[in-house]
Amino acid sequence: MSNRRHLPEAPYLAAATGRTPNHVPVWFMRQAGRSLPEYRRLRAKNTMMEACSDPALICEITLQPVRRHGVDAAILFSDIVVPLRGAGVDLDIVPDVGPVIARPVRTAADVAALTSLDLHGLTPVAEAVGLLVGELGHVPLIGFAGAPFTLASYLVEGGPSKLHEKTKRMMLADPQTWHALMAALTDLTIGFLRLQIQSGVDAIQLFDSWAGTLSPADYRSHVLPHSARVFAELAEFGVPMTHFGVGTAELLGAMGEAIGGPGVVGVDWRTPLTDAAVRVGPGKSLQGNLDPVVLLAGWPVVEQSARAVIDDGRRAVAAGAAGHIFNLGHGVLPATDPDVLTDLVALVHSL
Q1: Which residue in 72, 79, 187, 202 is the catalytic one?
Q2: Is CATH 3.20.20.210 what the domain over 11-350 is classified as, yes or no?
Q3: Is 154 a catalytic residue?
Q4: Where are the chain's structural domains?
Q5: Each residue of 36-55: pLDDT tens digit?
Q6: Catalytic status, residue 41
């Protein structure tokens, strides 16, 4: 049973499903984060994993950018490695480093030792979604998870990596172990997203942050089938689904294919939305794609760049995209002035 609300007029949901919104919807990846002084005050006494385990804190942090900026969607405050902890992985999120895995997964025996997802351990996430459904009014709530490839990279590398050497080596040299790992992580991701949907989120986004490190051929052979299974298993719920990665210009078509039916493909700042519309093909909405660094360059640059993104989005829709959701091409940078974000939301709504 789902607690999902009926929000037919929400601009974000309209644009995500190919309907015409009453204004261009806008939200920001990492909108609930270190750019907000109220976030920094709340987080001063908690580790990231502690914050992700406290329903009241998750709720408050998720609401902060909605209150401050007037964005058209909230995204659940969490981290993509939260379900890994729920599957028995010993990890920590180290400030200024990222997720660090105590015992990396590099052999068939390591893969076999991974446990299935303990949904009881994710009760705080479900409780937080329940709280948010009651607080957000007509603002949609986006749930999210890390895609199997990105989770696999953290597990195999033991933490963040620029080249993903160990991950690619396993993928290419030991495909049997690779696909076993990806199958396990696909099950994990499906379980985590299903929990969020059944708890009441209105849409979901799958983050494949590191997929851009792959060639199109390797992505199609070693990653696409697993990501596609995530979307296929969740299609029955009928929520809008977004697929996003960084540096994925050559993968956009395949990432759109992974969604299966209608959905949203996230685009980073390196690819014009009109080009993305051609690569993805008709019938899917696009999300993006202002360079986050633009927000540090002063308001005249922000305004000019945002107008260009809006214009490009309109051309993309004219070329066959089902809709356009304004966002950044990646997450909000910590040094971003929150007042610039507030002004940017107002600008997008006015155009």
Answers
A1: 79
A2: yes
A3: yes
A4: 11-350
A5: 999 999 999 888 888 999 99
A6: no
